[in-house]
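Is it possible to get an amino acid sequence alongside its tokenized fold?
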Amino acid sequence: MQLSIIIPFIAALALSTSASAKVGESGFVKLPRQDRYICDYRVWGQPGCDVQESNLGVGTITQSNLDICYSFNDDVVKSINLTNSVPDCSFVVFGETECQGKGEHVRFLGGCVSADDIINLTWSSYFVTCLNKAIH
């Protein structure tokens, strides 16, 4: 009796998995992302992105995070490295909280951008926006 219930369940599970998953070159099953990747960034508490002691961490932005203002909390952020990004998207940083004032677009991938070089203060908030609205 239980076998007659288990076999259709396994068959249904296999069909639903094969409909939404693809097998990659490595042979592993690739499941589709529910929230599309946009960019990765790393922040530092000192000018320059090479002082390991001031490395405050890394963050990832996905589609659901676009055009929402975020605070760096109580961290003193003086440098940002945009490590990866989809085309036509900008990481915009602000010297004031709640993304107010003049924002600076960080578009330079793999390079370090310091607040001292641009606005001579620290960054308090940020958001990510994409020019190509098809990304949404």
